[in-house]
Task: structure prediction
Amino acid sequence: MRIGELSERTGTPRRLLRYYEEQGLIVADRLPNGYRDYDERFVDRVLQIRGLLDAGLPTRIIKQILPCLDKPRVIHFQDATPEMLATLEDQLERMTARVECLSRNRDAIAEYLEAVRATRAPQA
Amino acid sequence: MRIGELSERTGTPRRLLRYYEEQGLIVADRLPNGYRDYDERFVDRVLQIRGLLDAGLPTRIIKQILPCLDKPRVIHFQDATPEMLATLEDQLERMTARVECLSRNRDAIAEYLEAVRATRAPQA
DNA sequence: TCGAACCCTCACATTGATGTGAAGGTCAAA
DNA sequence: TTTGACCTTCACATCAATGTGAGGGTTCGA
Result:
């Protein structure tokens, strides 16, 4: 598929698909006329990228962790340098911290909404 | 405490403490000489703000949800307009999505690290 | 009373993720 | 063959979070 379809199917501006490529997050094939050519797998890939970006990870980090998350659980040994592993451990920690922070605050919001509803519903 | 101590205790540059104030996330008292004056509660507050920022929430949103998260679970009725509640519901959803995305990817990284270790340890 | 270590405001710079548009090539259908 | 809807690259603009520093006041101890 070309960039327009991928854009529609992922809800991502073309501009950003090109940006993610520029940042090395995705690598598109090229048709003979120079157009980018994507296969189905890019849909999930792009959604994953967007999710991670939305959760606060910078493209630099996403680029590092993406190769470890490919469907066929292949260990890319060439990537598994000590520095790489250290980076992953570090990100693992940071992501866990994020999850905890988000969960805690999300629960607090949920509680708040519950409380608000509790003071309203009885009057109905 | 003054800004320097709050900065040290939260690991946050003074610049940012002033920025958070400018964005309406915190409101500092002032000493007679114009210096900002913070009490203990600001330490947790600032750490919470940093956590949420790190998790991808913009100050605009943080400002909206912070009042609902105060320790004494007080419902701020003046805030509880229908729009406000809708915003909170929306953020609740978005935060849940973020948590799911982060958890999923974090688990995948953990699995990857496990797998790498599994192929190494046996040779030791 | 001087210097160090604080604090203030103001303002410009940078970075990463985006928006927007210009200038131009490709292709299919009328 | 022309029009419209695609695509390309390039470049400048914006926004939020953050860095940095100038220019200046306060406080305290040597």
